[in-house]
Amino acid sequence: MDDVLRPLIVVGGSVVLTLLLGWATDLLLRKADERHPETPLWGLLRRGRIPYQLVLFAALLRGSYDEAGLLPDHETAVGRTLTLVLIGSAAWLAIRIAAAVVETTYTRYASSHRERDPARVRRVRTQVTLIRRVVSAIVGVVAVAAMLLTFPAMRAAGASLLASAGILGIVAGVAAQSTLGNMFAGLQIAFGDMVRIGDTVVVDGEWGTVEEITLTFLTVHTWDERRITMPVSYFTSQPFENWSRGTPQMTGTVFWHLDHSAPLDAMRDRLRDILRECPAWDGRAFNLTVTDSTPSTMEVRALVTAKDADDIWTVRVEVREGMLRWLGEEHPYALPRVNTADAVLPPGRRDHRSADGVPAARRVHTHPRER
């Protein structure tokens, strides 16, 4: 009878004690979260309640297993399994705690600096994301190593592995040269402040926003909802445009090809009126000038400003559309057109047609040397 009750008491007691401790800890964290709404730490720590209960259960059962006398023929296998569960759940809990602390630190920093320095907030966010990934990778490697060391065969093979570590390191370095290069490039991007999550970039002619940065690749979310995934080493070896570098304010241009008779002064007044009705314009500056001329048209450029890359796009399209609509309604002669009328002859001259019937005024006269 004792052989039956003892395992039930040990296993049942471990389960009940784990549930009670888990419920009490979760209750304390929930109350702390309600009392301190200014910090998300306590709410984030609640995400670790499952690995926390696994650690408690594995530790309690592993410590009392020898007294339970459960499955005595498989004592070694059961004990090793409980040890592996304990190591894995402890690593899982450590990752959750580290993520909660890092996320809380970033949230406090972002809330106090978002309005004053949004560029620095994006930089810290990038660094925090990569640091969390590095910590998770290190904890995972240590946990796997600890699990392997629980097997006697692995401990015996440790000496031979250390003896061949030099050769294996050289082979692994050559085989994983590209991967290691991307990893170092990822660390360089994180702490070198080259590109950050949320930055607006132009890469290979594609305009988009940096959505994700890892140790090996970077994802750019384009304006048409596509995702471009690139190795991070590209950003340390190739030139690219970062529109969010420094201040997010931007200057944009709008071009029109118009007839030489276009009313430039009226266009300047109309540009001012269009910008005053555009909420995306930041009011810093604007102008309108003629930048080029051809025999049939002239190139007119409008210069406008906005607070960031998204707004400058909105300002440019509204100015382009509004000006073309106004020209078509008020000054249609200013729009470019193809002239198919006969050339105007000087007074007193007659229109002599050639033998082929083409008016002399339409013929192209060449230099005598070219005839």
Structure in a nutshell:
With 371 residues, the chain is an alpha+beta fold. The chain has helices at 2-35, 41-45, 49-68, 75-113, 118-149, 152-163, 165-175, 177-192, 234-237, 264-276, 309-330; strands spanning 200-203, 206-213, 217-222, 227-231, 241-242, 250-258, 281-293, 298-306. Strand 2 (206-213) and strand 3 form a beta hairpin.
Describe the structure.
- By secondary structure, the protein is of the alpha+beta class.
- The protein has a five-stranded antiparallel sheet. Strands 6-8-7 form a three-stranded antiparallel sheet, with helices on one face.
- Strand 7 and strand 8 form a beta hairpin.
- Helix 4 packs antiparallel against helix 5.
- The C terminus is likely disordered.
SSE topology:
Layout: H1 2-35, H2 41-45, H3 49-68, H4 75-113, H5 118-149, H6 152-163, H7 165-175, H8 177-192, E1 200-203, E2 206-213, E3 217-222, E4 227-231, H9 234-237, E5 241-242, E6 250-258, H10 264-276, E7 281-293, E8 298-306, H11 309-330
Antiparallel strand pairs: 1-2, 1-5, 2-3, 3-4, 6-8, 7-8
Helix pairs in contact: 1-3, 3-4, 4-5, 5-8, 10-11
Structural class: alpha+beta
Shape: elongated
Structural Rg: 36 Å
Secondary-structure element pattern, one letter each: HHHHHHHHEEEEHEEHEEH
Task: Specify the helix fraction band.
Answer: 55-70%
Q: How much is the average pLDDT?
A: 76
Order of strands in the sheet with the most strands? Answer: 4-3-2-1-5
Number of helices: 11
Distance between the termini: 125 Å
**Biggest sheet layout:** 5 strands, antiparallel
User: What proportion of the residues form beta strands (DSSP E)?
Assistant: 15-25%
Uncertain segments of ≥5 residues (pLDDT<50)? 352-371
How many DSSP-defined strands? 8
